[in-house]
Structures are given as structure tokens and as C-alpha cells.
Design brief:
Blueprint lengths: L1 H25 L11 E4 L15 H4 L8 E2 L12 E7 L3 E9 L19 E7 L7 E6 L5 E6 L19 E7 L11 E9 L17 E10 L2 E4 L2 E4 L11 E4 L15 E5 L15 H23 L14 E4 L2 E9 L4 E7 L4 E5 L4 E5 L2
Parallel strand pairs: 1-14
Antiparallel strand pairs: 2-13, 3-4, 4-9, 5-6, 5-10, 6-7, 8-9, 10-13, 10-14, 11-12, 15-16, 16-17, 17-18, 18-19
């Protein structure tokens, strides 16, 4: 018993040290700097029939992701139901299979581009170039109703969704272990299998074709509402004042905030060269991703500074951001230029890599090593 107590208190000590270290580096924004989850997707050998059942041999090569957690992170209560995802890819497509445990499976929206997150749904977010701009969202309910959209930039930066945009060639199918819209029994799970052609991920006529070793930003969300059963139908639960009780948001890679439209917080998928390179532990986070986090520190600090002062700050020290530092073995410097309405920060490494960010959160690689 004494040994167990020692381990317990040592674990608490390590957690405390980690929190202190995170706060020292990121200040009040530490909750926005947990490391993203990563996943290495095997190259798909053979054909995949989109039928909601992952029974092809190729799916056996794809590991499950870690289980979904609350959108704010592990410090929040665990989800009531288990959710996991698998991914594959080939020259033309990204394949996704999700399994969602559920005792009461329901969905009434039946026309595409209905706002299906007003019901329980499964959601996919993809940012191919990692700029946090020009990204895509797919939402599907248990009746296989699709709501897809394109966003030129996040809502927080004035982005307006294009709901009329449609992903050409997108296909999905649902398998239900139980029954749909039947409150008189208990169900086990519903599964969704989908294929997203890379060519569908375009808005201006061009698209990004991944190659083996490339990584993209991606995340998954499960919207789960509390319900009442009235006259044999599922209805979203309300409080004593008649106001809807907020939905639960369970995600693969925690956002740290109740908002999926922080693309910089999404996880990462890497495209493997073969069907044997995948592993549940994913892959090491790329150096560029770690360095770009330093610029996001400026973004969050500038946002708060502007809210208080109605102008942007031109001094890194005032924002409590270091002008130089190291990320693992890489040394870097940061230059900040700001005016009342705009700002740009550039991070330059000793090896010549330059990454920039501006007031809209647009990140760009200006030069390579």
C-alpha cells in the first residue's frame, strides 16, 4: 500500500510540474497548446465497398484511433459512449470508418445540407495545406444525411461558410447494430464508412494531391444531445426554462475550447507509403508544426490585446512572448510588425525556415530549409 501511495503522489507531482511548465511557456493559453493526436494511415491495397461495414482485408491493416474525449480535453468527464475511427488512403481517395457506441440511435433529418448537428451526428474536418484557411467540413447523421461545407477562414476571423459547396464523388453508408428511431429497445452502435476523393477537396478548381510521407490537419467530432422521448419520438432535452440543454462534443484530438473551428488545434494524419507502416501511436509531430505553435501564442495574445485596447501590439515583450528561443535543437527568432488594424509575425530558424502568421490566423511557409 505504501508503494502504491508513493507512485500516486509522484504521479501528482509530475502532473503539477507539467502544468507549471506549460503555464510558464504559454501563460493563460496553456489549454490551447496540448499536443495534437497523430495517425498514420496505411496505403489501401484493394477495393473498398462503401457499405458501412469495414469487412475488407484492407481495413484490418488500419489501426483504431485512440478513443474520443471531451472537446476541452481529458480534464473533463469521459464521454458516455465510446467512439473510434480508422483511416486508409490511396492515390485518389481518403477512406474513413467510424464506430459510435449508442443505446438510442435516432435521426430525422433526411435531406442533404440540413443542419444535421441539430441531431446526433459524426463530423470530419480537413485542412489539406495546414494554413487554417480554405478547409472542409462533412457532417453525417444516422440516416446518412450529409451536410458538407467550405470555409475560406474560421468564423472567428469573419469566415462565411459556403453551404452550397458540394464534395463531388463523396460517398457514405451507415450500418446500425440496433434500430433507428425506435425508443422501445436498446441499440449497440452505428457505423459510418465514407470515401472522400482528394479531387473533391477543391474550391477554386485546384486541389492538393498527397504523397507518401505528407501530413494534413484533420479532426473528428461527435455531437451528442440529451433527449426525452415524447409520443414515441426523440426530442432534444430542455431545462426548466425551456432552453435546450447544450450538446456534448466528443472529439479525437482535443480542441481545448468548445469550438471545432480552431483548425490549428486539429490532429494530424500522415499518409504512409505502404499498408504496414501504421500504428496507433501515430507519428512524431513535425518540427514545422511545433515551431508554428510559437506564432499561435502571438495570435491568441494579440486577439486579447486588441479586445482591450482596440489596436494591435507591436511589442513581443508586452504580449509575454519571447523574441527568440529553441524548439528541440532548432534555434529561432521572431519578428513582429503591427499597426492599428493588422499585424504580421515571422519566425525564422537558423537553417532558414521562415513561417508567418497574421491577424486572420493565416499561416504560411515563406521559405524552406
Amino acid at each position: 500500500m505504501r508503494g502504491i501511495r508513493s507512485v500516486f503522489f509522484f504521479t501528482l507531482f509530475l502532473i503539477g510540474v507539467f502544468k507549471q511548465t506549460a503555464h510558464a511557456q504559454w501563460g493563460n493559453y496553456a489549454h490551447l497548446f496540448s499536443l495534437p493526436n497523430t495517425y498514420t494511415a496505411p496505403y489501401c491495397q484493394g477495393n473498398i465497398l462503401i457499405d458501412g461495414v469495414a469487412d475488407e482485408q484492407a481495413w484490418n491493416q488500419a489501426p483504431w484511433t485512440t478513443e474520443f474525449v471531451d472537446i476541452e480535453g481529458n480534464h473533463k468527464p469521459e464521454p458516455a459512449y465510446k467512439t473510434q475511427v480508422k483511416m486508409l488512403w490511396d492515390e485518389d481517395n481518403l477512406y474513413i470508418f467510424a464506430q459510435l457506441e449508442e443505446e438510442h440511435i435516432w435521426a430525422y433529418y433526411s435531406k442533404n445540407d440540413m443542419i444535421v448537428y441539430h441531431e446526433n451526428d459524426f463530423e470530419v474536418f480537413i485542412d489539406p495545406d495546414g494554413s487554417t484557411h480554405n478547409y472542409y467540413e462533412f457532417e453525417v447523421n444516422a440516416q446518412n444525411t450529409l451536410f458538407d461545407l467550405f470555409l475560406p477562414k474560421p468564423y472567428r476571423n469573419g469566415g462565411q461558410p459556403d453551404i452550397k459547396w458540394n464534395a463531388r464523388g463523396f460517398k457514405s453508408a451507415i450500418y446500425i447494430d440496433g434500430s433507428l428511431n425506435n425508443p422501445n429497445d436498446k441499440d449497440k452502435k452505428w457505423c459510418i464508412e465514407m470515401v472522400i476523393p482528394f479531387s473533391a477537396l477543391n474550391y477554386n478548381g485546384t486541389y492538393t494531391q498527397p504523397e507518401a510521407g505528407d501530413s494534413w490537419k484533420i479532426n473528428f467530432s461527435r455531437v451528442q444531445w440529451q433527449t426525452d422521448i415524447i409520443d414515441g419520438k426523440y426530442l432534444r432535452k430542455t431545462d426548466d426554462t425551456g432552453k435546450l440543454i447544450p450538446e456534448n462534443n466528443w472529439v479525437w484530438s482535443p480542441q481545448g475550447v468548445i469550438n471545432m473551428h480552431y483548425p490549428e488545434r486539429w490532429g494530424l494524419i500522415q499518409f504512409a507509403a505502404s499498408n504496414t507502416e501504421a500504428g496507433i501511436s501515430g507519428f512524431p509531430i513535425p518540427e514545422k508544426e511545433l515551431l508554428t505553435r510559437r506564432l499561435w501564442h502571438i495570435y491568441y495574445a494579440q486577439r486579447d490585446y486588441h479586445q482591450k485596447n482596440n489596436t494591435f501590439c507591436n511589442d513581443l515583450a508586452t504580449l509575454n512572448v519571447a523574441a527568440r528561443g529553441n524548439e528541440k535543437s532548432t534555434s529561432f527568432t521572431i519578428d513582429l510588425r503591427a499597426s492599428e488594424k493588422t499585424w504580421t509575425a515571422k519566425l525564422t530558424t537558423r537553417e532558414g525556415l521562415i513561417i508567418s502568421i497574421n491577424q486572420d490566423g493565416l499561416t504560411e511557409e515563406l521559405s524552406g530549409k
